[in-house]
Amino acid sequence: MLTNPQRHFAKLPDPRRTTRNKLHKLEDIVMITLCAVLCGHEDWVSIEDFASVQESWLRGFLELPNGIPSHDTLSDVMGCIDKEAFGEAFADWVSDSSTTVFCARSTDREGLAVLWRALAPIAALLCESGAHLPKVQRRGFQ
Question: What is the b/e burial string over 63-95, where b = at least 16 CB atoms within 10 angstroms of the residue's CB?
Fold first, then answer.
């Protein structure tokens, strides 16, 4: 099981200027994107569609004060996020999740396989956007 990523991404710097047109929280945009990509959505329109269909579920842990962001907003904001900071938050989440998966599985190898199958789409999206993921080391695994 993956750990809750919210605390790992909560400190990401918001690249947007503070104006009255800033309608959506950065945390909401990041979490919508992570959830949708983990569910297999690969483009911004399908990520927006996912969020619209799953809005009531998302409201269980996100504020969404102005509803679901448009696909253009999702794309624009995610494209401007500091890629190093995002990569570090992602690596922290993976590291935290790998500990949880290893504890929940009968063997470390099985747990690692489950973790990477779940995270591969997000890692691919990060690599395509030019993010550099720091090397994660945990209990002798690299």
Answer: ebeeebbebebbbebbeebeeeebbbbbbbbbb
pLDDT values of the chain reduced to their tens digit, one per residue, 142 residues: 567 888 889 989 999 988 888 999 999 999 999 888 888 888 899 999 999 999 999 999 999 999 999 999 999 999 888 888 888 888 888 777 655 444 444 444 554 455 556 566 666 655 555 554 444 444 444 3
Spatial separation of the C-alpha atoms in residues 99 and 95, rounded to whole Å: 7
Whether residue 3 lies inside any domain: the answer is: yes
How many independent structural domains does the chain possess? 1
Domain range for 119:
1-9+23-131
The pair phi, psi for residue 138, each rounded to 5°, is -150, 120
Other CB atoms within 10 Å distance of the CB of residue 27: 16
Question: What pTM was estimated for this model as a whole?
Answer: 0.72
Residue 106 lies in a domain: yes
Residue at 126 is within a domain: yes
C-alpha to C-alpha distance for 85 and 16, rounded to whole angstroms: 15
